Amino acid sequence: MADTYGLIGAFYSKPSPPLPPFFLKTPKLPLHFPSKSMAAHCHCSSNPRPSQPSLLVFSGGTAFNGVVEELKKLTVRVAHVLPVSDDGGSTAEIVRVLGGPAVGDIRSRCLRLADESTSEALAVRRLLGHRLPINPQQAKSEWYKILEGEHSLWEGVSKPYRETIRAFLAYFQNEILRRPNESFCFSNGSIGNFFFAGARIFFQSLDAAIFLFSRVSDIPAESLVLPVISTNDRLTLGCELWDGTIIRGQNEISHPTNAIGSVDKGRSSVPALPSRIKRVFYMSSEGTNSLHEVFPTVNQAVLDQLSNVDCIVYAMGSLFTSLCPSLVLLGIGEIISSRSCPKVLLLNGSHDRETSGFSASSFVTAITDALNRTYGNSHNCLRNLPSQYINTLLVPKDGEIPIDIQSLSSQGIFDVIIVNSIHDPKVGTIFDPVSLINALGNVVSRYMRTKD
After folding, report:
1. With CB atoms counted within 10 Å of each terminal CB, which end of the chain scores lower, N or C?
2. 6 or 81: whose pLDDT is higher?
3. Strands (E), 245-376
4. How far apart are CA 447 and CA 311, in angstroms?
5. DSSP 3-state of 77
């Protein structure tokens, strides 16, 4: 462990963050870490391609991942807006012991955007995408092999990358050791999550951690990964059901489980909710009811992107726990309703615990209520029409969700496009990625022609 502790010691020996060797290798990058909206500033300054449309996608970290590779063929000018309230799986253990926002969804999207053009890029992606075994002892043993630099996962990773990645893994380990009263369980742990958490804690900035991760995994400079809330604090998601029940925690709302390990986000046998979801909101770390509701501030970089992109996309996935946590924040509904660009909902192909019995218009209503903050603080409510938030629906062929055309028309939504689908044995009907991106590209092209 001598080398590892040497890396940790190097961090503690200086009053300000040392420059990782990765940056010494690439002088073209800015050699500083601006705070807050750094991610947007650093990415946007680099050779924009005006011929490609710009998109902003609201999504979680799972469902939309399957089309990210295909989306790159349409455009790399995409701002991926992700929640930081996930509290399941590997992320839950990091948040429990070290606090801070959840990084799992952000790490997952960063890896999907990572470069794959060289053998080293693939090696880095394989390392940061690796999960430890479920068995706690085996997981801990493998973790130490990775930490020591002795694991086969390091093969193909050059010294500058290796030193940078190991430094932040070592920092993460040291933060765990500094909390002797908390026993950290490495079961099913994500190496990418550990690296991300180490960087966030070291820089005391979620934006800086994203910037570092983006550079290490060589994400295209025009592809932004934006936390909807830029914070170093732990955020807890809550929901209120129509029967008055309050549920605390994103995982408890969407995929409740009592086991430590991976969370099954497919079609599982979780019990149905006792009532439909009325609204989602953020809660403080104390208390168990809506009296402890808090109102975090949206990331300014998200608002900046919303004001300028050519298309806004609400991705398929968990409606209330992936999309709505981003939509309920003050400022989001105001900007979206003011834009005249395509605003596209990618409808789910099947029901889940959150949307049992929903029709297409029910999805539209839920998104409208979230953006209007209809059931929140009455002083912050908007009264915009559904058509001010959504003007196009892309629907997977043969999906489970009923397409109630008459109700959609009454909401002012007339552009409903059926897209080829495929069957996934785990989650049911999903979009065919090629067909989906082609359809999305056609919608954006129509707008760009009228814009010109």
Report:
1. C
2. 81
3. 246-248, 277-283, 293-294, 311-314, 343-346
4. 9
5. coil
Signed CA dihedral, 43, 48, 52, 55: sign only: positive
Q: What are phi and psi of 423, to 5 degrees?
A: -105, 125
CA angle 166, 167, 168 (to 5 degrees): 95
Q: How many CB atoms lie within 10 A of CB 145?
A: 13
Helices 159-177 & 191-203 angle (0-180, nearest 10): 80
CA atoms within 13 A on the CB side of 356: 11
Residue 119 has pLDDT above 70, yes or no: yes
Q: Half-sphere exposure of residue 33, counting CA atoms within 13 Å on the CB side?
A: 21
Tell me the CA distances in angstroms from 203 to 26, 198, 235, 265, 431, one per residue in order.
20, 9, 19, 32, 39
Coil/strand/helix, residue 238: strand
d(CA 348, CA 363): 9
> How many C-beta neighbours within 10 Å does residue 149 have?
17
pLDDT greater than 80 at residue 282: yes
Cβ contacts of 396 within 8 Å, gap of 6 or more = 347, 348, 349, 418, 419, 420, 421, 429, 430, 431, 432
Pick the range with the lowest mean pLDDT from 99-103, 389-393, 405-409: 99-103
What string of DSSP letters covers 393-424?
EEEETT-SS---HHHHHHTT--EEEEE-EEEE
Question: Out of 78-82, 229-233, 324-328, 393-397, which region has the weakest mean confidence (pLDDT)?
Answer: 229-233
Mean pLDDT of the chain: 86
Place 287 in a pLDDT band, splitting at 50, 70 and 90.
Answer: low
Rounded Cα distance between 94 and 184, Å, is 8
The answer, as to whether pTM is greater than 0.70, is yes
